[in-house]
Amino acid sequence: MKEERVTAERKLPNELNLLQHAIFDKLTTLQNQSNKMVIEQIASTTQEQSRKEIQKLASKEDLALFKVDPGLYFRSISTRSCKEEPSNRTGEFLIQPTQNDEPFLGYCKQTAFGGGWLVFQYRYDGSVDFYRNWTEYRNGFGSMDGEFWLGLEHLHRMTSAQKHELLVELKHFNGSYMYARYDEFEIGNEKDQYPLARLGSYTGTAGDSISIHKGMKFST
């Protein structure tokens, strides 16, 4: 009997511990579910409030410019090109050459030669390595806060959608400035290895060093 009692006394704390753990696990699960429900409720409420606020503030004409996505209206803020960007400000903007294209982030420069220029390459201090593979040159690399390459696919879609010009600016640290401008510019598709499909007449002070590459395919 004594041995059995000792055994029973040892089992009882173990069973209590198991019961406590089980209760704690259940409470934790309920707490997690409760937190999830609160988060979902807040998100749902925020969406509904946003939708109602937009509907109250916007006119019928304005609402026609919004796209519907799970009950929310989002204003289309992309532009076909930097030339058509309505604010006429230099900076980063969403560019969408055609309705079938995915918008991409581009840097528009509005201060040179009447503005409307999309910057697709910027180098000035060697902080970004431009010795890259085909995929990186196709998709783009770097940051618009520093040195970058926009990407061949973006260039192809932009220049094939409508007529573009090319402007190359060279600035020296001593303050000297040269430029080369071509009145037509188009990059072909990836299937043809992104050739320089079209290049117009040259004007400028830097000399014409690009015309000899007309029709040539891109290579890394």
UniProtKB/TrEMBL annotation:
<feature type="domain" description="Fibrinogen C-terminal">
    <location>
        <begin position="73"/>
        <end position="220"/>
    </location>
</feature>
<dbReference type="InterPro" id="IPR014716">
    <property type="entry name" value="Fibrinogen_a/b/g_C_1"/>
</dbReference>
<dbReference type="GO" id="GO:0005615">
    <property type="term" value="C:extracellular space"/>
</dbReference>
<dbReference type="InterPro" id="IPR050373">
    <property type="entry name" value="Fibrinogen_C-term_domain"/>
</dbReference>
<protein>
    <submittedName>
        <fullName>AGAP010760-PA</fullName>
    </submittedName>
</protein>
<dbReference type="Pfam" id="PF00147">
    <property type="entry name" value="Fibrinogen_C"/>
</dbReference>
<dbReference type="InterPro" id="IPR036056">
    <property type="entry name" value="Fibrinogen-like_C"/>
</dbReference>
<dbReference type="InterPro" id="IPR002181">
    <property type="entry name" value="Fibrinogen_a/b/g_C_dom"/>
</dbReference>
